[in-house]
């Protein structure tokens, strides 16, 4: 789910996309795009991490306590049917997988287009100045 903390610490990534269950009270299988407010994560929240129960808020708090920043984080979440531990997807969540994949592709395409646009503007600016 997460990449190497050193890659986040040294700023190699502009955006991190997490894909996970996101209970928000809607119908099971509802897919969301969430951009959490990372500015309000308290670095003091960091705790020892268990690889089987990594809470993204704790991971990002730990990263912040180490002096790093994840820059931009987007979450593609799906409303679960149940939150109990188990293996496999419920029927409504299984049906939502294709929609979630399409959303991830759309977000990546939008990010790539945004980056290309920024590079074009930067090139034009350097051409005008230089």
List keywords for this structure.
Rossmann fold; alpha+beta; 42% helix; 3 helices; 130 residues; 3-stranded mixed beta sheet
How does this model look, in words?
- With 130 residues, this protein is of the alpha+beta class.
- The chain has a single domain (5-129), classed as 3-Layer(aba) Sandwich (Rossmann fold), CATH 3.40.50.
- It is 42% helix and 14% strand.
- It contains 3 helices and 3 strands; from the N terminus they run H-E-E-H-E-H.
- The chain has helices spanning 5-9, 56-65, 91-129, and strands at residues 15-21, 31-34, 72-78.
- Strands 1-3-2 form a 3-stranded mixed β-sheet, with helices on one face.
- The radius of gyration is 18 Å and the shape is flat.
- The model has no long low-confidence stretch (mean pLDDT 81).
In short:
With 130 residues, the protein is of the alpha+beta class. It has one domain: Rossmann fold.
Order of helices and strands: HEEHEH
Strand order of the largest sheet: 1-3-2
Radius of gyration: 18 Å
The end-to-end distance, rounded to whole angstroms, is 43 Å
Coarse structural class: alpha+beta
Largest sheet: 3 strands, mixed
CATH architectural category: 3-Layer(aba) Sandwich
Q: What is the top-level CATH class?
A: Alpha Beta
Number of helices: 3
Q: Give the number of domains.
A: 1
Molecular shape: flat
Could you give the count of β-strands? 3
Low-confidence stretches: none
Mean pLDDT: 81
Helicity level, as a percent range?
A: 40-55%
Looking at CATH, which topology would you report?
Rossmann fold
Strand content: 5-15%
